[in-house]
Amino acid sequence: MAEERKKILEVRDVKKYFPLTKGKLKEGVPYVKAVDGVSFDLYEGETLGLVGESGCGKSTLGRTIIRLYEPTAGEVLFNGEDISKKSRKEMRKLREQMQFIFQDPYSSLNPRMNVFNILAEPLLAHGIFKRGPELEEYVKKLMDKCGLPSYYCYRYPHQFSGGQRQRIGIARSLALNPSFIICDEPVSALDVSIQSQIINLMKDMQEENNISYIFISHDLSVVKYISDRIGVMYLGTIVELADKNQIYDNPQHPYTQALISAIPIPDPEKRNEMKLIEGEIPSNVNTPSGCKFHPRCPFAKDICKEKEPPYKEVAPKHWARCWFAGEFKW
């Protein structure tokens, strides 16, 4: 299926390093390797889920792809065009096609602007509308589409619940009819019933407009529901990438196996034995030699400590970064 669809995004060995001192990266200056050589493709109308522990680089990767952070190295091709080195003026035009849904619905909306102005701002900034009845009609239709009564348009963010604020954030990201949206944990701050409403809204919008998503989350159950493929991140790199059913039914990397075992099953007779990963997450400043996961891996051997494992296809369309992928099961 994926090969028959158009590639909308190609990420090639993207890195994002943050110096620990002010200024640009210089030789001898320590830096945090937040994203350290990530590559993948995203297809039209597809949802790619990104999961991993806090601090693994998921959100930084999303912000780097869309140029909220400048990449340290690598290429990002959007519709076949390298955007990693484009000027701010060139990127401004591309913003119509790529958008971002932020994690926190409380801090991502301007408290001094009402909903109408929040949703109208990108339309006015890009010259799609001028102020007038056409703009008002478009904004109200957009609100209706996202499950917000249009008569709420002159209310301010503090007058809404968390779920309603996230709907406003989604409506803002859809205002310019983008083809690609990065969703940075868009439901993590919401209760379960509201989460399902937001996820279903996003799926409906995707089917209606053929939008491609990168969906970043800690919740493995939510990721499985919304995603077509899933990438598992650890210390700034993707350690496994495959179709969601392959990831959940046949995880090849020990880290993925441990994450999957932690998913709660709502049946007391079918409890999983949780695989506990021992040890602390290594520093992103002084990353371990060889495989980054070897200090915490129960199956690590000498080669894991000495050489970085290749990112290889261990099964059709199933990639893993492990010397012994699939050979060991917890």
Textual characterization of the structure:
With 330 residues, the protein is of the alpha/beta class. The protein is 29% helix and 23% strand. The protein contains ten helices and twelve strands. A hairpin with a 2-residue loop joins strand 9 and strand 10. Helix 3 packs across helix 4 and helix 5 runs parallel beside helix 6. It is globular and about 70 Å long.
Write the layout of secondary structure elements.
Layout: E1 7-19, E2 31-43, E3 47-51, H1 58-65, E4 73-78, E5 81-82, H2 88-94, E6 98-101, H3 115-125, H4 133-145, H5 162-174, E7 180-184, H6 192-209, E8 212-216, H7 220-226, E9 229-234, E10 237-243, H8 244-249, H9 254-261, H10 302-306, E11 311-315, E12 318-321
Keywords: ATP-binding, Nucleotide-binding, Transport
GO molecular function: ATP binding; ATP hydrolysis activity
GO biological process, one term: transmembrane transport
Give the helix/strand class: alpha/beta
Q: What is the terminal separation in angstroms? A: 32 Å
Helical content class: 25-40%
The total count of strands amounts to: 12
CATH architecture: 3-Layer(aba) Sandwich
- Low-pLDDT runs of 5+ residues are none
The amount of beta strand, in percent, is 15-25%
Mean pLDDT: 89
Q: List the domain count as a whole number.
A: 1
Q: How would you characterize the largest beta sheet?
A: 8 strands, mixed
Taking all Cα atoms into account, the compactness measure Rg is 21 Å
CATH C-level category: Alpha Beta
CATH topology, by name, is Rossmann fold
Keywords: ATP-binding, Nucleotide-binding, Transport
Organism: Dubosiella newyorkensis
GO molecular function, one term: ATP hydrolysis activity
InterPro entries: AAA+_ATPase (IPR003593), ABC_transp_ATP-bind (IPR050319), ABC_transporter-like_ATP-bd (IPR003439), ABC_transporter-like_CS (IPR017871), Oligopep_ABC_C (IPR013563), P-loop_NTPase (IPR027417)
